[in-house]
Each structure stands twice: as structure tokens, then as C-alpha cells.
Amino acid sequence: MYAPETTWTRAFLAVAVVQALVASSLEAYVLIAVERCFEPEVIQVARGHTVPMFFALFIFGFVYQLFLVYDALRSSSMIQIVGLCLYNLCLLLYAIFQPWEIKDALESLASNRTWDGKPLLTPGTDAWGDSKPALVALALVVAVATAMFYSVAWKLRSEFAWLVYKAINADLSMKKRVLILQSYVALLKFDMFFLLGFLAQNMIYASANMGKPEFGLSIGAILLVLLVIWLAVVCALRENKVGTLVIIVAHFAAAGFLCYKLTNIPRALFMFRAFAAITLVMTLCTIGMAVLCLVNFGKGVKTFTESQQRQSSHNLQETDYASPSYLYGYTPRRSPLDD
Description:
By secondary structure, the protein is mainly α. The protein contains 10 helices and no strands.
């Protein structure tokens, strides 16, 4: 089992763990502070799901980030490290806009009543006043963590450079093709978060009306996304042209669905619309990288990555072809300078 051995790899993992623990605790406090001001009837209104949606998204985001951080450090992938910095920047933007979104939702709920005249918020409570300090603190925590991620990533850049140089020692054209494969696989991992996050938000808002078919379709789509991304990685590594073409078509279908949703999401749900837009951009980028990988099939990338894995396996007790390292085409090895 991999364990960070250097100061900067430990620091990168520590920043991710501390941010996840502190930010998740603050988000949980916000959820409790707001939920205790809600009347039971609030679940019938879409805006009543705003806080639970943010809570679910942040918890999922931080947990998934821990997996990606461990994966990136284990495989010494600078591409994924850079992706994690951008990923955390997206979380920061969400944390910054979260207070305005929640405040707007609470004001909307306070001014509305049920069909029989009952309030949606408990009279005499101050949900916004109770949750505002935690929301501000959450944004500050994520901002500090983002700055630390970028700072430590800069240190890791030089630390990983030697490992990558040893692993990818082919000609320039081969390095470019291997880099495209690495970027595609890394992009698929981030796609999983954004697609699942979008579907989860869509499902939460659709739950205001359990009779809508979209609620059940979102549940089924979650399983489909997991299957498609797994097949995308397998097809790319095995250079399966038919499978990769099917994956590209599936991503075009996802892009079309996202375009449709962008035109139908209420303007009041600003952050949901923003998340859908980011997911659409990620999906289009994935399509582009898939096409580039498809063009490189049959040009030696598969043979090169397999030879690198066989060479690396001599230093391992057991070759793990399903490990994240294999997905990047190489397994980090200790440099002679470390001895």
C-alpha cells in the first residue's frame, strides 16, 4: 500500500485531509442550523432543497478529492496534480457563491406559504443569521487550502519531473502521444465527479415531485455514467476503436442532455446552472481528448505503455494492472539520487 515518503507529497495529502475535515464540519453545521428552522412542508418546494444539495455536493466533492489526491501521489501524475488544483478552485467558487444562493433561498421560503397558509420557516427563527458565520468561514478555509494546493504543487513539479523523465524516455512524438493518453484518463476521473454531481443535484430538485420521470432517470443515469467512464478507460488503454467511438457518441449524448437542461433550469438556481455549464465544458473537452487518442491508436502507445509496465513490475512483488499507475502508462520508480 502506497504511503507518501517525501515532505511535499505528505503536505499535499495533509492539505486535502484537513480541508475535507474542516469544510465538511462547517457544511454540516450549516445544514443543521438551517434544517431546524424548516417546517416539514418545505420539502414540497424546490428551494427547500438548496442547503441539502450544497451539503451533499461538498461532502461528495471532498471525499472524491481525497481519492484523486491519493491516486495522483501514488502514480506521481503531475497532470492530475494540476487538475486537482483547478478542481479545488471550482470548489472555492462554489463556496464563495454559496452564501448568496442560500440567503436567496431562505428569503424566498420566508415569503411563501403552503396552500393552506402555513409558513415554510418556523416563526421566530433566524436561519440566515445562524448559518452566515459558518458559510464565511467555509469559503475562507477553501481559499486558504486552494492557495496551499498551488504552492505545494509547484514544489511537486520538480519532485515528479525526474520520475516522469525516467518513465517516459521515448522520442518527442511518442512523449506527446503518451501525454494525450494520460490527460484523457485524468480528465475522465474529473468527469466522473462533475457528471455525478450534476445528476445528484438534478435528482434532489426533481425529488420535490417524486412523480416526475426525471427522478428515476437520474438514478439510472448515475449507474450509466460509472459504466461509460470505466469502459472509456479500458477502451483507451486497449486501443479499441469501436469502443472508443461508442464512448464519444455517449459523451455527445451527455453534452446534448446538458444543453437541454441549461435551457430549462430556472434562472433562480444560479449555481445549478453554473455547475451544468462547467460539466458541459468538461464533457466537450473529454470528447476532444478522446478523438486525439483515437487518432493515436496503432502508433505504438499501447506497446510503449505495456513495456513500461513490464519493466516496472520487476521492482514490484506483484503487478497490479488495475492500479492507477497503469492507467497513466508508468509506475513511479525510485531515482538513484534517492539512494
